[in-house]
Design brief:
There is one protein chain. 38% of the residues are buried. The chain has 16 helices and eight strands. The strands form two sheets. A five-stranded parallel beta sheet has the order 5-6-7-4-8, with helices on both faces. The protein folds into three domains: 84 residues, 2-Layer Sandwich (GMP Synthetase, Chain A, domain 3), CATH 3.30.300; 155 residues, P-loop containing nucleotide triphosphate hydrolases (Rossmann fold); 73 residues, Helicase, Ruva Protein, domain 3, CATH 1.10.8. It is α/β, with parallel strands linked by helices.
Length: 376
């Protein structure tokens, strides 16, 4: 394992931490809480992490502090503590050099805007819609565990705003809900002149809090009411958030009254959402409610073949069968196994035997019996 040295930058250290975090949380969670973060500086064993606003600072401190400290210490021996600070996107100029040794001797702050520019990925090409182009119907594997949800989604894209409005898809983490609902948005954007927008309920809540604090609620309302198709992931996050629920209620009515399509996902049926207003539950139930269940062995095998194809891998049926039998928890773990094999294939010309693959994916197999950070 490589530890940070005096020549490694804060950016490199934080990238190592983010890679680990991204493997343990959903994409929606990662994008909401970690996409706009960075290491500002290090000073006498304390790492100062920059976050975009106070709401994110509080959430990361309460939910992820221990994990972040553990990961920082994994890559840098001298880390003793972590502090989270709200960093302005228009911060002062910083020196060109940003090594760990320089930061420890006084602390240089890299502007958040500069770090953002350096770490932009192709996903940001869809920033307005907030959609991942990799999530398409073409790459979505249909099986008995999700065929009803897939069929309902197909009906929605045929006539957005008319059929199944709202569409409510529920199921446990890692069963492909995010892929499916983003596929709806991508199809609408690519094949119609309608505006589609994807947002996690976490991000929706953050935007609402920010708008209240900045006395700019009207701008918030206009932002979300302009879309023809609004897709909101992980609606269960809004439990207990009464003010945000009220705003969602009014947004729902405005969109629905104007025949705009609304799509929700959740980890449970709307009737079982705790601390969710009855009037919202009533509106969820007024549309189409479908579930996605755990994929069976044949579906897991089909998913593995699809993921291997996307990675340019040629996996034997023996390997596919082993992985499908060893990993039963969720699709994300299957993807993680394929990713681990793909990385090894890139760095080694050796044939990947079944025994070698067993060693490569043992963490994915073992993780089925551990608590995922999303479940805490």
């Amino acid at each position: 394992m490589n530890k940070t040295t005096s020549t490694q930058t804060n950016q490199k250290l934080w990238e190592q931490v983010l890679v680990e975090i991204e493997l343990s949380v959903s994409e929606a969670t990662f994008n909401t809480w970690f996409s706009d973060t960075q290491i500002l500086r290090q000073d006498n064993g304390t790492v100062y992490v920059g976050v975009p606003n106070e709401f994110v600072r509080t959430w990361i401190t309460e939910k992820y502090d221990k994990k972040i400290i553990k990961l920082l210490r994994k890559f840098a021996d001298d880390v003793r503590n972590v502090e989270y600070q709200v960093a302005s996107t228009s911060s002062d100029k910083s020196p060109d050099s940003q090594s760990v040794s320089e930061n420890q001797s006084g602390g240089n702050t890299l502007p958040l805007s500069q770090t953002k520019q350096q770490t932009k990925t192709t996903k940001n090409d869809n920033k307005k819609a907030n959609l991942n182009p990799e999530y398409s119907f073409q790459s979505f594997v249909v099986g008995s565990f999700n065929e009803l949800a897939h069929a309902a989604s197909q009906a929605v894209i045929e006539d957005p705003g008319s059929a199944y409005n709202p569409l409510f898809i529920y199921g446990k983490t890692g069963f492909g809900k995010t892929h499916l609902i983003q596929a709806i948005g991508n199809h609408v954007r690519e094949n119609t002149d309608k505006k589609a927008h994807y947002v996690t309920s976490e991000k929706f809540a953050v935007d609402y809090v920010d708008s209240v604090q900045s006395n700019n609620v009207n701008k918030f309302k206009n932002k979300y009411r302009q879309h023809d198709v609004l897709i909101m992931d992980d609606i269960q996050f809004l439990s207990q958030k009464k003010k945000t629920q009220e705003e969602l209620f009014h947004l729902f009515n405005t969109l629905h009254d104007n025949n705009k399509q609304i799509v929700f996902s959740s980890d449970m049926h709307p009737n079982y959402l705790k601390d969710m207003e009855d009037r919202l539950k009533s509106r969820f139930n007024a549309g189409m409610i479908v579930d996605v269940s755990p994929p069976g062995k044949e579906s897991r095998q089909a998913i593995l073949r699809q993921k291997a194809k996307e990675k340019g891998l040629s996996l034997s049926e023996e390997v596919i069968t082993y992985i499908a039998e060893a990993i039963e928890s969720n699709i994300r773990e299957l993807e993680g196994a394929v990713n681990a094999i793909a990385i090894q294939a890139q760095v080694s010309d050796d044939d990947l035997s079944l025994q070698k693959i067993k060693e490569l994916i043992k963490d994915n197999v073992n993780s089925q019996n551990t608590v995922n950070i999303d479940d805490v």
